[in-house]
Amino acid sequence: MASHTPGAPVFAPPADLPDWALRSVDLANPRLGARALFASDDFFADVARMLDPEPAQFVPGRFDTNGKWMDGWESRRKRTAGHDWALVRLGVKGVIRGFDVDTSHFTGNYPPAVSIEATVSDADDVQALQAAAWTEILPATALGPDSHHLLECASDAAWTHLRVNIFPDGGIARLRVYGRPVGTLAAQAAAGELVDLIAMENGGRAVAWNDASFGSAASALLLPGRGLDMGDGWETRRRREPGNDWCVIELGAPGTVDRIEVDTAFFKGNYPDRCSVQAAHVTGGTDRSITTQSMFWQTLLPEQKLQMDAVHTFTGEIAALGTLTHIRFNIFPDGGVSRLRLWGKVQAR
Length: 349
What we know:
This is Probable allantoicase. GO terms for molecular function: allantoicase activity. Keywords: Hydrolase, Purine metabolism. The structure is a single chain. The protein is mainly beta and 349 residues long. The chain has two domains: 10-181, Jelly Rolls (Sandwich), CATH 2.60.120.260; 186-346, Galactose-binding domain-like (Jelly Rolls), CATH 2.60.120. Helices cover 6% and strands 41% of the residues. It has helices at 19-22, 126-130, 186-191, 287-293; strands spanning 10-11, 25-26, 35-39, 57-58, 63-64, 67-68, 73-74, 84-102, 113-119, 135-142, 148-152, 158-167, 171-172, 174-181, 195-196, 205-209, 214-215, 234-235, 245-263, 274-280, 298-305, 311-314, 324-332, 336-337, 339-346. The strands form six sheets. Strands 2, 3, 8, 9, 10, 11, 12 and 14 form an eight-stranded antiparallel beta sheet that branches. It is globular, with a radius of gyration of 22 Å. The protein starts with 9 loop residues before the first strand and ends with a strand.
């Protein structure tokens, strides 16, 4: 067992995600606008922590006025009939593929079981949501201590809100809701508007990347807004061999590209010297096969020089490749990029 400094935080290892989760985005990510609205009880740990995008941590020796500080949602020991529950608004309406109900660091205080219900609502009012019609999309399922529980969803409908039930009480470190946003591009497609085809809130998804030694995974490129700091972006290690770094991204919907933006915010001594974009319209295949094919895709944007801490906008340099479903973003030879935007029009159906 690896040792650590006494009193230092211990972070939970990431989940070994199945294909249905890898091909999804976390609809409960607060960066997309998700929010914990209410909990029947969060005496020991604020329900909002359950949606934190960072891995759960355990800090030895840290206590607050109510007891041991825990990184997640934790209710007190229930001494009456019933169970505890929480209301969560998803960041965007979406079809849910499944969940990671993570009880990391909750050992003698995890819930023995969980179930999840869903509804569609335009309101975040707790009383209105309590009166709404709810559909069970995850039946009562046994949980264990200090574990990632990867559970598939029993519904193929699209939802906006969840009610998370724990039986009877206890703590959940993190809740990830894996799915795909729906309807976010429909109105823009009908109006022919320019939209960010790879924005996470529009269903864009990082398929693969060769390295992410610093900062976040390549999926950070697709988050809303500009980066918060140098850790809020995709950054690779210093390359000590020939070649370049890359990531493959799936568009939220097939479309044509009019403008590309590469934002190196906060990356100063470590921004890439150049970048390029390859692209293709892909039908069929797996993430692995698509990644392999990406080496041979056509050039959408030839190599372009980059500068530190700046937004780079490219229009006239973009090749007319027609309708696309995937891109390969290349950086030369390595470095960090905060955000990548692919502005274009959704293919009319």
